[in-house]
Design brief:
The complex is a heterodimer. By secondary structure, chain A is of the alpha/beta class. Chain A has 20 helices and 20 strands. In chain A, helix 3 (108-117) packs parallel to helix 6. Chain B has helices at residues 2-29, 34-42, 51-60, 67-79, 93-128, 132-147, 150-164, 177-206, 209-216, 221-258, 264-273, 277-305, 307-310. The chains are: A alpha/beta, B mainly alpha. At the A-B interface, helix 2, strand 6, helix 3 and helix 6 of A face helix 9 and helix 10 of B.
Chain lengths: 535, 326
């Protein structure tokens, strides 16, 4: 039985009285109990399609042609009343980012209860169902969790609470919009496995929206590839992976790379270190009146070495201490113990003024390309700001340097006058890299530089970083939770867990022959087994 | 929680002390001689007094002491509710203020209530009106309201409602009728500012992903607005609320002068003109106290509205890995 039947669907966004198309002539069906994945990069129209199905398009979104029938009800042009009957009870939605998907001022249980009550239940039965759905979604200790507020839950638990909300309406279809891209790989794997099991057990159809072909291929019965608002390819995962027809699909498959280390430095003598952290510890004071003042050990004797001209990666789940390590290495945070030596200079314990000249040697590129640039600064202003700050050159020579930098990151000179809002995510990250290069540093710290980008853009940025390293002899300290990215770019790696380094060594050694259980778990959690099998 | 409350109260006391000290310093540094003012009020030329008479008078008002001694004297006096004697009217400042403060408190309480209700209502309508032209009009309205000076609004109201229509008295403090126009005068400004902040906050809140979650559940439009948007949108407006209530107190200076109401605001205006230092000091101290108290109340209300401040018991340490269920 066909649950979703989309025919010739056109969706567009009204901007300045003109309709910009986002989805064009889409045909798509989802049968009862089927798992379908829509794969594509941002702007491919995959999320627009999902939103159109339940009438949750933004205010300027319009369905301009075609039909979208869900459970026998036409949603294209339907009234708000009709759509409301569909939402929750026929179609459940698991939104993109679990960190902001729950109302921060309401208890988790209450937010699930709302969905239960819409089915006409009242009284004690509601509470019982809330706990049941939380348990179904895989939340341990549901009584406690139901009483808590979202900020008291980890990202993984919030995602499970959102799954519980979707289940609470007893829907026939669940739409999971990039359900796990904000989560660590191990948590992602557990949640997707769990969701897959649930829909299978209860006969619910699942529509997964993702940019990651590996995630889609591992779990879907059928994969639909979208590009620029059109469906370019459709079929079962094995066929698509083995015999992709479109160039675009081949690119996506290439990007869903298996973990094959690119560099092998096992038998080489390591170059001199540019950065050396020895036994670095960090204790954050935790103020808790009931339990008394007590420190929280964020880092416990962490030793990390970045060889000159090479890339050292820090990997681990969120909260494992990798960002704290990076901040201490940059001198933004003071270590409680241990030493940090940057290019022969001990920097731990230096005052701001003494540290400042050393900052020229090490620069930072952030995770979020949308927040890293001042929205009011043009590209030229952003890129030359470090030069202004260190009083290097005059207006003319700075502009000249800005042009050079844009050449280095492969952006046209015409972009100098653009504002961040006129750039795509990948272009913004290129500007951020150009800014980090402005002072000709020896070392660049990269904090998850590609995790917010589409897979194909990730690929381009990683290539750029590799080219820059080869051309300028840069050293990188690369923080990431994504092992496939690390395999591609890093020479050596430290695997971190709970503030400790659990394994360390050349990537080629650690990834092919992991010694610790934690490293094995991280490697097993990488999506894309079907991709590997098909290759 | 206790820590939060104690911290806020200590903060409030420090702010009060700083306000008093700063006012004292400014008034002391004013290029005027309190003795001269004093005598001028009594109609005596300073030259006509013998040096010993002058010294005796100085001693009576404590003006012969060092600035530190005067400061200490004033500070301990204020703590006991004694603000000294008015230089121009020769009666205790506390009596002067006691007679008038009721009027001013009534005025600002009424204005604060009206602003709160009108501002919230306007913001709600402006955000949730379905007819687009109406929404645009309502969204622009607060900017208009905030840009009229208060004395202008007051004069307009007097001209129209007192002189032309004769609905409300143009001056005086008699009855509830006389309160209407002063309250409206103050509220036009404060409710507009509140509405501006709330409208922006509503817009921002409605773009949050949890609003999509709420809509996807199948909740009705009004349930999404009232249960999910309103409380979250009110949080940023809370901060401005303290300032606005304080503003209703300070607005009384202009409004009481224009409407000739015998309140503390008018007293302040007269005292400043007469350079009556003890009265000015007392009025500023009382206004600062009101300001601090209102902001303290707002700070203490915050945790009730935002569980992220109050509710951290049983919190899971962020580093704790997720428990695997089998």
């Amino acid at each position: 039985m066909t649950l979703v039947d989309i025919k010739g669907l056109d969706v567009g966004y009204v901007r300045h009285r003109r309709v910009t198309p986002a989805v064009l002539g889409l045909d798509l069906t989802v049968a009862a109990g089927e798992v379908v994945a829509i794969v594509g990069e941002s702007g491919s129209g995959k999320t627009t399609t999902a939103n159109a199905l339940i009438g949750l398009l933004p205010a300027n979104g319009r369905i301009t042609a075609g039909s979208a029938v869900v459970d026998g009800i036409q949603t294209a042009g339907a009234s708000e009343r009709t759509l409301r009957r569909l939402r929750g009870s026929v179609v459940g939605l698991i939104p993109q980012d679990p960190m902001v998907g729950l109302n921060p001022t309401q208890r988790v249980g209450h937010q699930i209860a709302e969905a239960v009550k819409l089915r006409g239940l009242a009284g004690a039965a509601v509470q019982a169902e809330v706990l049941e759905h939380l348990a179904q979604a895989g939340v341990p200790d549901p009584e406690l969790r139901a009483r808590q507020y979202p900020h008291e839950l980890s990202g993984g638990l919030r995602q499970r609470a959102l799954i519980a909300i979707a289940l609470a309406g007893r829907p026939k279809l669940i739409i999971a919009d990039e359900p796990t891209s904000a989560l660590d790989v191990t948590v992602q794997k557990r949640i997707l496995d769990h969701l897959g099991g649930l829909v299978h057990e209860q006969g619910i159809s699942l529509l997964i929206i993702t940019h990651d072909l590996a995630v889609a291929a591992d779990r879907a019965d059928r994969v639909v590839v979208m590009q620029h608002g059109r469906k370019v390819e459709e079929g079962d995962p094995a066929t698509i992976l083995r015999t992709p027809r479109e160039h675009y699909t081949r690119q996506l498959i290439a990007a869903a790379r298996p973990v094959v280390p690119h560099f092998d430095v096992r038998d080489q003598v390591a170059p001199e270190p540019i950065l050396q952290l020895t036994d670095v510890s960090k204790t954050f004071p935790v103020n808790d009146l009931r339990r008394g003042a007590r420190g929280f050990n964020a880092l416990d004797k962490v030793s990390v070495t970045v060889p000159r001209g090479q890339t050292h990666a820090l990997v681990g789940e969120s909260g494992c201490g990798k960002t704290t390590t990076l901040r201490i290495a940059l001198g933004l945070e003071t270590a409680t113990g241990g030493s940090v030596v940057l290019d022969g200079d001990e920097i731990s314990g230096l005052s701001w003024n003494r540290l400042r000249p050393l900052r020229r040697k090490a620069q930072l590129v952030h995770q979020d390309p949308f927040a890293t640039l001042d929205p009011k600064f043009t590209v030229a202003q952003s890129v030359t700001e470090p030069l202004v700050s260190f009083r290097i050159g005059d207006r003319r020579s700075r502009l000249q340097r800005a042009r050079e930098l844009l050449d280095q990151v492969a952006l046209p000179h015409s972009y100098l006058d653009r504002l961040p809002s006129e750039l795509s995510g990948g272009q913004r990250q290129r500007v951020a890299i150009a800014r980090a290069l402005a002072l000709r540093p020896d070392l660049i710290m990269l904090d998850e530089p590609v995790s917010a980008l589409d897979v194909l853009v990730q690929e381009q940025i990683l290539q750029l970083l590799a080219d820059l390293q080869a051309a300028l002899g840069l050293s990188y300290l690369f923080v990431s939770h994504d092992l496939s990215v690390v395999a591609e770019i890093a020479h050596t790696v430290s695997v971190m867990s709970h503030g400790r380094v659990v394994e360390q060594g050349p990537v080629a050694e650690v990834f092919t022959n992991p010694k610790s259980a934690h490293t094995r778990e991280l490697i097993d959690a990488i999506p894309g087994r079907r991709v590997v099998d098909a290759a | 929680m206790t820590r939060y409350i104690v911290g806020r109260i200590i903060q409030a006391v420090v702010v009060l002390w700083a306000a008093f000290t700063l006012t004292f310093a400014i008034l002391y540094l004013l290029p005027s001689d309190p003795m001269e003012l004093q005598l001028a009020a009594a109609g005596i030329q300073e030259d006509s007094l013998a040096p010993d008479q002058l010294a005796a008078m100085k001693q009576r008002f404590g003006l012969d002491q060092s600035i530190w001694a005067q400061y200490w004297h004033h500070l301990t006096g204020v703590l006991h509710g004694d603000f000294g004697t008015s230089l121009s009217q020769q009666i205790p400042v506390s009596d002067l203020i006691g007679q008038r403060i009721g009027q001013t408190l009534l005025l600002s309480a009424a204005a604060a209530t009206v602003s709160l209700v009108a501002g919230s209502l306007l913001a709600y309508l402006a955000t949730f009106a379905r007819w687009n032209p109406l929404r645009v009009f309502l969204t622009r309205l607060p900017a208009l309201g905030a840009s009229f000076p208060q004395f202008f609004v007051a004069l307009f109201l007097i001209q129209f409602f007192s002189f032309q229509l004769g609905w409300f008295p143009a001056l005086g403090t008699e009855g509830i009728q006389s309160l209407v126009m002063p309250v409206v005068t103050i509220s036009v400004l404060t409710s507009s500012v509140l509405a501006q902040v709330l409208i922006k906050s509503f817009d921002e809140t409605l773009r949050q992903p949890y609003i999509v979650t709420a809509r996807a559940k199948g909740l009705s439009r009004s349930a999404v607005h009232l249960k999910h948007a309103f409380r979250n949108a009110a949080l940023p407006a809370m901060t401005i609320l303290g300032v606005l209530v304080g503003l209703t107190v300070t607005s009384s200076i202009v409004v009481e002068t224009v409407f000739t109401r015998e309140g503390v605001g008018k007293l302040a205006q007269e005292a400043v003109l007469a350079q009556d230092v003890p009265v000015v000091l007392a009025v500023v101290t009382i206004a600062a106290t009101m300001f601090v108290l209102v902001n303290l109340v707002v700070d203490l209300l915050y945790p009730l509205l935002d569980p992220r401040i109050s509710h951290t018991r049983g919190r899971v340490r962020p580093a704790t890995p997720e428990v695997v269920t089998t």
